[in-house]
């Protein structure tokens, strides 16, 4: 999906103006929010460090821990967490989650693996 952005616009973080098309705020902002752009300063200070951190073993361990916690919580609600197996970083379902009803095997939420880790945490904590 190719989207062209206006050359100038409002930064989604600081409300300042971005120029030259700005930058993608993903992964701080969910991939679904494709219309959002951010300025050079916010990109360098917030987005880049987040991208770098997410490539570390430390982050992988943190994610694993959070997933385990969510799995335990969902299990008490008759639900299970399914993670997208896509290894392609540009795929729509990359790294996303789905929540399955254990007994009927019905998809409870995240039909296209469009739930983020934060989304599934909220889901598990809501019920
Ligand atoms: Zn900004």
The helical percent reads 25-40%
H/E order of the elements? EEHHEEEH
Any idea what the radius of gyration is? Answer: 17 Å
Oligomerization status of the protein chains = single chain
Biggest β-sheet: count, sense, barrel?
A: 3 strands, antiparallel
Structural class given helices, strands, pairing? alpha+beta
Listed once per kind, the bound small molecules are: zinc ion
Flag low-confidence runs. Answer: none
Distance separating the two termini: 35 Å
Helix segment tally: 3
As for the number of domains, it is 2
Arrangement of strands in the largest sheet: 3-4-5
Which range does the strand content fall in?
Answer: 5-15%
The number of E-state strands comes to 5
Bulk shape = elongated
Q: What's the rounded overall pLDDT mean?
A: 89
Please render the helix and strand layout as text.
Elements: E1 9-10, E2 17-18, H1 40-54, H2 57-75, E3 79-83, E4 97-101, E5 107-109, H3 117-126
Antiparallel strand pairs: 1-2, 3-4, 4-5
Helix pairs in contact: 2-3
The protein binds zinc ion.
Short description:
By secondary structure, this protein is an alpha+beta fold. Helix content is 35%, strand content 13%.
Care to describe what's here?
By secondary structure, the protein is α+β, with helices and mostly antiparallel strands. Helix content is 35%, strand content 13%. The protein has a three-stranded antiparallel beta sheet with strand order 3-4-5. Helix 2 packs parallel to helix 3. The chain is elongated, with a radius of gyration of 17 Å. The mean pLDDT is 89. Bound molecules: zinc ion. Zinc ion binds next to helix 1. The site of zinc ion has 8 residues, from helix 1.
